[in-house]
Amino acid sequence: MSLIPSASPNPNPTNTKSIRIALIAGEASGDRLAADLVRSIQKKTAGLSFFGMGGASMRAAGVHIEQDFAGLSVVGIVEALWHYRRLRTVLERMKRMLASQRPDLLILVDYAEFNLRLADYAKSIGLKVLFYVSPQLWAWRPSRIHRMVGRIDGMAVLFPFEVPYYQAVGIPVRFIGNPLVDDVRPSGTVEQLRQSFGLGLAKEKPILGLFPGSRESEWRRHMPTLLQLAEQMMAKGVQPVVSVASGLEVDEIEQARRHPGIQWVRGRSVDLMASCDA
């Protein structure tokens, strides 16, 4: 399965049309996966350009962000219904983007419910569609795979046991592994990391890492309890440090940052995990 178009070498020197790839990611994990994919493609194929929906990681990888995914990450049907109007507006905007720019390939990264609807539209206007990161068919609602037949031209999966699901229905599939495994490595020693945060953490006091989540709903649901825990632990001489996901922007972050004694680190969850005591 090879859907990535090649732009180099150019068999027709008079044809200067750039090959363009659209990517759609709707949350932080997909943003990182898409960014890693773009960098991998760029190493192998020159002359491609990338645009679409994503966040800070994709932007840093050179993707032109037409739509930031801030505020679009939802969990479950209740949250999807709550944000339905905004999701619908963005979906229609992405349809117009595809219709006007007509990329050579559309890569849909995870975010299944939104992206399957966009895949349906993309196929209706004749675009090639690659789905990257399989929905967890093996965990729940395996019948969802039938929605993909005819909607996508290929599937790239993170786990080898997912391959037979797509082979059984005739969808071209390739196991590519999970590139985020390589990202789960700290960028330095514990001492180096603590200094790099620039928080003035005391060496003699233990550090408690708090990880509310990368979605707005997770932050609002988890943070009040975590702040109560942080206040209790500070009374025992522990230094709480909260991890704020890249691209997460909610009013409650600034409100929570006003709590005295609680420190904050943005976009460095792996480094914080490696450097905290608990």
Summarize the structure in words:
The chain is an alpha/beta fold. 33% of the residues are buried. It contains twelve helices and ten strands. The protein starts with 18 loop residues before the first strand and ends with a helix. It folds into two domains: 19-182, Glycogen Phosphorylase B (Rossmann fold); 186-275, Glycogen Phosphorylase B (Rossmann fold).
List the helices and strands and how they pair.
Layout: E1 19-25, H1 28-44, E2 48-54, H2 56-60, E3 64-68, H3 76-82, H4 84-101, E4 105-109, H5 112-124, E5 129-132, H6 145-148, E6 154-157, H7 163-167, E7 173-175, H8 180-183, H9 190-196, E8 207-210, H10 216-234, E9 239-244, H11 251-257, E10 263-266, H12 269-275
Parallel strand pairs: 1-2, 1-4, 2-3, 4-5, 5-6, 6-7, 8-9, 9-10
Helix pairs in contact: 4-5, 9-12
Name a few traits of the molecule.
single chain; alpha/beta; Rossmann fold; 2 domains; 7-stranded parallel beta sheet; 12 helices
Widest sheet: strand order?
3-2-1-4-5-6-7
Coarse structural class: alpha/beta
Q: How many distinct folded domains?
A: 2
Q: Which CATH-level-2 architecture of the largest domain?
A: 3-Layer(aba) Sandwich
Order of helices and strands: EHEHEHHEHEHEHEHHEHEHEH
Cα Rg: 21 Å
Sheet with most strands: 7 strands, parallel
Write out the CATH superfamily name of the largest domain: Glycogen Phosphorylase B
Number of strands: 10
* Distance between the amino and carboxyl termini: 44 Å
What does the average pLDDT come to? 83
Q: Count of helices?
A: 12
Helix content: 40-55%
Contiguous runs where pLDDT drops below 50 for at least 5 residues: 7-16, 74-78
- Indicate the proportion of strand residues: 15-25%
